[in-house]
Amino acid sequence: MKSALKKKLFVTAVALSFAMAVPAAGIAGDTIKLGVAGAQSGDLASYGLPTVKAAELVVAEYNAKGGINGKKVELLIEDDVCKPEVATNTATKLVTDGVDVVLGHICSGATKAALPIYKEAGVVVMSPSATNPGLTQSGDYPNFFRTIASDDAQAKTEVDFAINVIGAKKIAVIHDKGDYGKGLAEFAKTFIEKSGKAEVVLFEGVTPGAVDYTAIVQKIKRKGADAVIFGGYHPEASKIISMMKKKRMTTTFISDDGVKDDTFIKVAGKNAEGVYASGPQDNSTNPVSVAAIAAHKKAYNSDPGAFYENAYSAALALLNAIEKAGSTDMAAVVKALQTEKVETPVGNINFDAKGDAVGVGFAMYKVENGKYVEVK
Amino acid sequence: MDYFIELFFGGLTRGSIYALIALGYTMVYGIIGLINFAHGEIYMIGAFTAFIVATVLSIYGFPALAIIIIAGLAAAVWSSSYGYTVEKVAYRPLRKAPRLAPLISAIGMSIFLQNYVLLAQTSDFLPFPALIPEFAFMEPVAHIVGSSDLVILVTTAVVMIGLTFLIKFTKIGKAMRATAQDKTMAVLVGINVDRVISATFIIGSALAAIGGLLIASHIGQINFYIGFIAGIKAFTAAVLGGIGSIPGAVLGSLVLGLTESFATGYVSSDYEDVFAFSLLVLILIFKPSGLLGKAETKKV
Amino acid sequence: MFPVKELKRSALISLWFAFLTFPIMVIKVNPIERTVDWRWDNMYFVAIGSFVISILSKVYLIRKERRSGRKKISRALTEPFMQRILREPRFLYPLSLAILVFAIAFPYFFSTYQTNIMTTALMYVVLGLGLNIVVGVAGLLDLGYVAFYAVGAYSYALLNMHFNMGFWTVLPIGGLFAAFLGVLLGFPVLRLRGDYLAIVTLGFGEIIRLILENWNDFSQGPSGIANISRPSFFGMEMSFDGGITYIYYLVVALVVFTIFVVNRLQNSRLGRAWLALREDEIACQAMGIDKTKTKLIAFSLGAFWAGLVGVIFAAKTTFVNPASFTFLESAIILSIVVLGGMGSIVGVIFGALILILMPEYLRALSEYRMLAFGGILVVMMVFKPDGIISNVRRSYRFKKHISHQTSDQS
User: Fold this and answer.
1) Out of A204, A218, A235, whose CB is closest to B221?
2) Of chain A residues 12-51, which have a CB less than 8 A from chain C?
3) How far apart are CA C122 and CA C348, in angstroms?
4) Which of B38, B92, B186, C275 is exposed most, by the fewest CB atoms within 10 A?
5) Confidence at C174, pLDDT banded by 50, 70, 90
6) How large is the angle between the packed helices B272-286 and C167-189, nearest 10 degrees?
7) What pTM, to 2 d.p., does this model score?
C-alpha cells in the first residue's frame, strides 16, 4: 500500500488534517438550536439513546406545525459517554455551535461537569435523568431544570414504604458504589435513622461486575435484616436477588428506578417475583404519554427505553418555554419555565425556583407475574 | 461457626471461578511471557456462544442434558478458534518485537473484541439459562453450598489435575515445557514451536469457555463487559500464585477468593478489592515470584 | 501479477472467518420471546471483507519484500526520513519553531471546541512524556500510572474546597504529593521484576481509586467534587472562552517545559543510568550505579508530571470523580508511549495526538468508534512494533574514510 516514508507522511497528514477540520459553525438566527447531550455509546448508551429519539420526535412534531414563532427547530446531538471530562468537551462543542437550549445530560456526574460551561454561556439545561439532589438544591445552577424527581425524594418514598407498609425493623442498605446508587443509599440510611422506627443493620457497597455476591448475601442473612434497600442498577440487583433465592432467603427486596426496568424482570426471571421498586408515577392514563409512546412505536417499531417519557416532557417544556418567552434569552426562558404550565407525558408541570418539576414524584411498584404493578 | 463455614465455601466457589480463567493466563504467560489481556474476552465469547447455542437448542426443544453438552462443546470449539486466531493475527507477528508491543496489541484486541460483541449482539444484560440443574441431594445444605457451586468446585479440581497430567506426561506437554524453558533450543531439538504455542492458546481458550459456561450459569446473566473485570481478577490470582505455574494459579485463585469472602464477611465489602490487592502486594514483597513461582536466578 | 495459490489461501481465510464469527454475528436470540433471528447477510459481509483484507495485506507484504530486496544496500546506510530531520539541527530548529508558532496561533484560528480538545491532547502529551521516563527510559512497566494523575487532581479539588487554595499554589504541591507517593510505591516494589511489577502497580492504581470511591468523608465518594475554581490570571477572573484559551496556553507552556526537562534528563548522567538499568540490572550494579536511588528517582519524577497534569485536569473540568481514573486510562497512556515509540520524545507526542484526537474525530463513526480504536491499536502494533518513531540510540561511530590514515578525528 504505502512505503514506510509515505506512511509516515500519511500519518502526519492525517493528524494535521484532523486538527484543521473545523466543523462549520452554524449560521445563527434563523433556527432554534436544541442540543441533546448524553451517553450515546459505551456501556451506558441504553440510558441515553431514548432521549435522542424523544427529542427527534418532539422536534419533528414542532417543525411540522411550522416551528416556534416562525423559526424551525434544529437538533444538535452530541455524545458524552457519561464521562465528566468528555462532557466538558461536549458542552464546549454545543456552546461553540451556538446552541440555544440543551436537553441533557444523562448522568449526574457528567451534568455537574458540564453545567458551569452552559451557565457561563447563558444556556438553559434540562435533564431527563440526572437525579443528584445537589444539582438543584445547591442553588449553584440557576440554568438547570429536570423532569425527574431527585434521589432524596426517591429514597424517602422507599424508606416510608419499607417502614410503614412492610413494617421492617431491621434494614440492610446495599449500594453499588456508584454515583447514583451510593447517593441514594446514603439518603435512605439518613431517613431510616431519622424515623426512629427501624435500624440500619448493614450499610455496604458491592463491586459492580464481580463474579459472585455470596459473601454479602450471607452477611445480610447473619445481620437478620428483614428488608434490603438496594441503590444501584438492575444487573447487580438481579445477581443479589438470585443469590438470595439460592440461599433460600425470603428477605423483602426494595430498590430504585435503576431497577424498575423491564430488563430486570427479563434477566432475573422468576427470582424477580415479589421485588419492590420505586419509579416515576404511572402515567399510562395520561393522553400525552399515550400519544408519545404511540409516536415512538410508529417511528421505530419498538417500545421506548429508559427515561423516554421524562425526555419527551423535557423537550416539550423547553420548546414551550421558548415559544411563550418569545426569545431564547436565558432569563426569559427561566421565567417561562417557572410560570407557564405545560401538558407533558409526566403530567401538567411547571418548575420551582430551584429547578425541580412541580408535581413529579415517585410511586412504589411490585413485580407480579412478570410485570411491574403499582402498589396502591 | 456456621457463618465461617458459609463464608469459607463462598470463598472457595469464588476462587474456583477465578481459577478457571487464571489457568489460561498462566499457561500463555508460562510459554511466551505475554500478559494476554484478551483472555478475559475469550472467556466472555465462550459464555456468549454457550448462551446463543443453548437458547437456540432449547427453542427447538432439545433435552436438558443434550443442551448442556452441545452448548459446552460449541463454546469450547469457538473459544479455541478465537484464541487461535487472536494469537495468529495479533501476537505471532510480534514475537520478535520489543516486549511491550504484544501487550499493547493485546489491550487493543481486548477493546476490539468487547465492542465486536457489543455491536453484533447487544449492550443489554441477557438472562443466561440455568444449565446446571439443582441436585436433590444438595437440598439439605443448599443454604451453604449450592449445586452450581459444587459443579464449579469439582470442575476446577478435575481441570487442574488433568492439566498437570497433560503437561507432565504427554508429548505435547513435554514440548510445552521445553518451549517455555528455551525457545531456540526447543527449535533445535525438533519441536515445532509455532504449533506448541497455538496448542497452548487452544487449550487455554477451551478452559476459559468451560469457565464461561459454568460461571454465567451460576450468575444467571451475561453481557459484553463481563470478561474485563473477571479477567483482571484472574490475572491477579495467577500472579499471586506464581505466574506460569498451574498449581500456583489454582492456589492463588483460592487464596484470593477466600480473602475477598472473609474480608466482606468480617470487615466490609466496601474495601473487598483493596484487601485483595493489598494481599497481592504483601505476598509479592516477601515472595517476589508469587506463592509457587520459581525464583528466577539470572546468570550473568 | 497475483498467484492463484494466494487467492486460494485468501478464500480459505475468508471461510475460516465466516466460521469463526458464525455464532456471534449470525445468530441473535431473544430468550424472552424465544425467537431466533438468523442474520445470514452478516456472514457474507464477513466472508467478503476478510477475503479483501487478506488479499490487500498479502499485496502489501509482497511489495515490501520486493522493495527491501531492492533497497537492502542503500537502507543500511541511510536513516529513516523522520529521524534524519530530527537529528539535523538545520531542519529541527526551524521545524520546532514553526510548530511552536502554529501552537500559539491555534486558538485564534480555531473554535473554542477545537482548542479545548487540543488542550486535552496536550495534557496527554505531558502524561505520556512522564510515563515515558518510567517505562520507556528506565524500563519499569507501570500499569497504575493513573493513580498519580488522580492524586494531583484530588489534591487541587480538596485543597481548593477546604482551604480555598488557588491553582498556582496547588500546582507544585500536587506534583510533589504525586512524587512522594511515587517514592512510597517505589520502595516496596523495588525487588520485583518485569511483569510482577506491572501487576503490583495495577493493583496500586486500583487501591487509590477504590479509596477515593469509598472514603466519603475524605473525597465525597463517587459523586465527586464539583465547582472547582478555574485558574486565575494574576487575580483576574476570566470569561469562559478566555479561560479555555488561558488553560490552553498554560498546557502549551507545560509541554515545552516538559520536553526541555525530559530531553536534558535523557542526556544526563541520570538518564544514562536509567538506560543502563533498563538494559541490564546486574551489569548496571557492577558499574557502581545505585540501583535503589535510580529507580526511585524514575518513579517519583514520572509521578511528578502526572501530578501536575492532574491539577490542570481538575482545574479544566472543574469537576472530579473517581470514574475518571480507571485502569483503562492507564492502559491508554501506556499505549501512547508504546505506540509513539518507547523512549522517543517526538514519538510520544505523535502517539498522544493520534490516540487522543482520534476518538474525538471518530465521532462520525458513532458506535463503531471504539471498535475502530481497538482495531487500529492492533494493526499499528503489528505493522510498526517499534512505534511510530522509534528511538534513536545515541551511537558513536567511527567514520571509515577511503584513506585510512586520517580517519577517526572527524
Assistant:
1) A235
2) 12, 15, 18-19, 21-23, 25, 40-42, 45
3) 11
4) B92
5) very high
6) 50
7) 0.84
Looking at the predicted structure, is the pLDDT value of residue A145 above 80? yes
Q: Which CATH superfamily is domain A152-274 in?
A: Response regulator (3.40.50.2300)
Name which of B52, B108, B119 is nearest C29 (Cβ-Cβ).
Answer: B52
Cis peptide before A296 (omega within 30 of 0): no
Interface subset of A 176-205, CB within 8 angstroms of C: 177-179, 182-183, 186, 205
Model confidence pLDDT, tens digit, residues B62-105: 888 899 999 999 999 999 999 999 999 999 988 888 878 888 89
Residue-wise pLDDT for A96-105, tens only, equals 888 899 998 8
pLDDT confidence of residue C75: 46
pLDDT tops 80 at residue C77: no
Residue C355 confidence (pLDDT): 85
Q: Residue A22: which pLDDT band, with cuts at 50, 70 and 90?
A: very low
Residue C189 DSSP SS3: helix
Distance from CA of C78 to the nearest CA of A (A): 12
Neighbours of chain B (3+ CB pairs under 8 A): A, C
- Please check whether residue A105 is in contact with residue C338, taking contact to mean a CB–CB distance below 8 angstroms: no
Predicted pLDDT of residue B180 = 87
CATH number of A31-148+285-360: 3.40.50.2300
In angstroms, the first-to-last Cα distance of chain C is 49
* CA angle at B35 for the pair C354 and A215, rounded to the nearest 5°: 110
Bridge partner list, A351 = A357
Q: What is the mean pLDDT of residues C276-289?
A: 83
CATH 3.40.50.2300 residue window(s) in chain A: 31-148+285-360, 152-274
For residues B147-185, b (16+ Cβ closer than 10 Å) or e, as one string? bbbbbbbebbeebbeebeeebeeeeebebbebbbeebee
Contact list in C for residue A120 (CB cut-off 8 A) is: 239-240
Asked if A89 has any chain C CB less than 8 Å from its own CB, the reply is yes
Contacts of B17 in chain A (CB under 8 A): 211-212
Digit-coded pLDDT (tens) for B199-225: 999 999 999 999 999 988 888 888 888
For the record, the C-alpha cell of B100 comes out as 511491550
pLDDT tens for C136-151 read 888 888 888 999 999 9
DSSP string, chain B: -HHHHHHHHHHHHHHHHHHHHHHHHHHHHHHH----TTHHHHHHHHHHHHHHHHHHHHHTT--HHHHHHHHHHHHHHHHHHHHHHHIIIIIGGGTTS-THHHHHHHHHHHHHHHHHHHHHS-SS-EEPP--S---GGGGGGTTTS-HHHHHHHHHHHHHHHHHHHHHHHSHHHHHHHHHHH-HHHHHHTT--HHHHHHHHHHHHHHHHHHHHHHHHHHH-EE-TTHHHHHHHHHHHHHHHH-TT-HHHHHHHHHHHHHHHHHIIIII-GGGHHHHHHHHHHHHHHHSTT-SSPPPPPPP-
ipTM, 2 dp: 0.86
Q: Domain residue spans in chain C?
A: 4-77, 110-383
Tell me which fold the domain C110-383 belongs to.
ABC transporter involved in vitamin B12 uptake, BtuC (1.10.3470)
Q: Do C317 and A140 touch (CB under 8 A)?
A: no
Query: Pick from B89, B104, A1: which is nearest to C385 by CA?
Result: B104
Q: What are the cell numbers at A206?
A: 458491592
What does each C-alpha distance from B153 to B12, B222, B250 come to in angstroms? Answer: 8, 21, 11
Residue pairs spanning B and C at CB distance below 8 A: 175
pLDDT of A21 > 60? The answer is no
Can you give the length of chain B in residues? 300
Structure confidence at residue C347 (pLDDT): 87
- In this structure, which amino acid lies at residue C153? A
